[in-house]
Amino acid sequence: MFSGIVEELGVVRGLSVRSGCSRLRVQAGVAAEGTVAGDSVAVNGVCLTVTGNKSGLLEFDVMPATLKDSNIGKLTPGAKVNLERALRADSRISGHFVSGHVDCCSTIRAKGYRAGNLAFSILLPERFRRNLVPKGSIAVDGISLTTAEVKPSFFTVFVIPFTAQHTTLGLKGPGQTVNLEFDMLVKAVLAESSCNRNIIMS
Predict the structure, then answer these.
(1) Looking at the 3D structure of the chain, how many domains does it have?
(2) What is the DSSP string of 27-72?
(3) What is the pLDDT along the chain (202 residues), one digit of tens a residue?
(4) CA angle 184-65-176, nearest 5°?
(5) What global pTM score does this model have?
């Protein structure tokens, strides 16, 4: 479990794609402190299990489904990634609950400034339209953000300068991909309402 508050930008040192589990290596600082094999770390919002920590070089095994459903498979050496260690029971939750189970990978539609604020418009896959409401929570590449605008085919989020400077969003622009994880509370409500509707109709 995570909160969507990125601890640092890590640097990809390598991604070895294999038929089974692929191997991802990321150089980290803060996120490597006290991190041992078996711990969970969110990489661009994707919950991955640490298999090794060699003086700050974190190693992860990555399943084929993860490469397919996220932007992890597009990473190249030197690329920056958002890193967040799993929450502790006594941690403050400054963002919102993020599981690290990415729902989909989408594309940045537009990037620009509105009234001096940095705004990103991101394409919204049709099957996930019900998961978003204005002023709702969403994790974009593992960053806890609030939706400012929700349209049928895209949504808009505003990013403060600090977030732009300390996460991958400041480095990304139109046409580039981001991982999306919709609010788990909204997903739970939708699942429950769907279940109740099926019971009534049966």
Answers:
(1) 2
(2) E-SGGGTT--TT-EEEETTEEEEEEEEETTEEEEEE-HHHHHHSSG
(3) 999 999 999 999 999 998 889 999 999 999 999 999 999 999 999 999 999 999 999 999 999 999 999 999 999 999 999 999 999 888 778 888 899 999 999 999 999 998 888 999 999 999 999 899 899 999 999 999 999 999 999 999 999 999 999 999 999 999 999 999 998 877 667 666 655 555 455 5
(4) 75
(5) 0.91
**What are 53's strand-pairing partners?**
58
Q: Give yes or no for a contact between 176 and 134, defined as CB atoms under 8 angstroms apart.
A: no
Tokens 């060699």 -> residue? 54
Q: Are 58 and 50 contacting, i.e. CB atoms less than 8 angstroms apart?
A: yes
Assigned domain for 200 exists: no
Strand ranges inside 99-165, DSSP E: 104-114, 117-123, 137-140, 143-150, 154-159
The residue segments making up the domain with residue 79 are: 8-85
Structure tokens at 178: 């981001």
Residue 168 DSSP one-character state: G
CA–CA–CA angle 83, 149, 134 (5° rounding): 85
Task: Give yes or no for a contact between 147 and 132, defined as CB atoms under 8 angstroms apart.
Answer: yes
Q: Are residues 118 and 174 in the same domain?
A: yes
